[in-house]
Amino acid sequence: METFIGTKLIKAAPMTLGTYNDYRGWVMPVNEDPNAGGYLVEYLDGGKANHADHEGYISWSPADVFEKSYRVHDQLTFGEALEALKAGMRIARAGWNGKDMWVALSGPLEGRTIAFENFWSKPCSEFARYNGGSATVLPCINMKTADGKILMGWLASQTDMLADDWVIIP
């Protein structure tokens, strides 16, 4: 088997294995502990709903496995925040939220081909025109600033990269 690491936005609530089995309408297996601590987990970004009270796929996770795998969404490392960014989510530092600032990825990770007439930068438009009529634009991280502007090509500071207060903006 290969080793994987994942980034998912989930909802979770503490729930024992016995309570989870009751919730699902299942009979508790005799060889399992109904008092085992864990979490009801609802996956928000994939999986067909498997319970009438939930929009996403639900399952149960043992407490130790869950607590090693997930963080509260307002305590992310920069690496975790980058994974959320690559999954199409907006992110911010916790201290930025009062200013409605965030960063987001522009464009698909593999880039996008743009026709020369759609560039608003004259040098880029001219390059695309003489490059067969188009050019591939690679993605970049953009920031929505406190004064309501978009900063194209935002760069994280060392403080940003070392912080553990990154959040996912809904």
In short:
The chain has helices at residues 17-24, 63-69, 78-86, 122-130, 158-162; strands spanning 10-14, 38-43, 57-62, 90-93, 102-106, 112-115, 134-137, 140-144, 150-151, 166-169. It has 170 residues and is of the alpha+beta class.
Q: Can you tag this structure with a few keywords?
A:
elongated, 170 residues, 22% helix, 3-stranded antiparallel sheet, 10 strands, alpha+beta, 2 domains, single chain
* Cα end-to-end separation: 34 Å
N-to-C SSE string, H for helix and E for strand: EHEEHHEEEHEEEHE
How does the overall form come out from the CA principal axes?
elongated
Proportion in β-strands: 25-35%
Report strand order across the widest sheet.
1-2-3
Structural class of the helices, strands and pairings? alpha+beta
Number of strands: 10
Q: How many domains make up the 3D coordinates?
A: 2
| Average of the residue pLDDT scores | 91
As residue ranges, the low-confidence spans are none
Rg calculated over all Cα atoms: 22 Å
Biggest sheet details: 3 strands, antiparallel
Helix content: 10-25%
* Count of helical regions: 5
Characterise this structure.
- There is one protein chain.
- This protein has 170 residues and is α+β, with helices and mostly antiparallel strands.
- It folds into two domains: 10-69, no CATH class; 78-169, no CATH class.
- The chain has five helices and ten strands; from the N terminus they run βαββααβββαβββαβ.
- The protein has helices at 17-24, 63-69, 78-86, 122-130, 158-162, and strands at residues 10-14, 38-43, 57-62, 90-93, 102-106, 112-115, 134-137, 140-144, 150-151, 166-169.
- It has a three-stranded antiparallel β-sheet with strand order 1-2-3.
- A hairpin with a 5-residue loop joins strand 8 (140-144) and strand 9 (150-151).
- The longest helix is centred in the middle third of the chain and has 9 residues, at 78-86.
- The chain is elongated and about 70 Å long.
- It starts with 9 loop residues before the first strand and ends with a strand.
- 12% of the residues are buried.
- The model has no long low-confidence stretch (mean pLDDT 91).
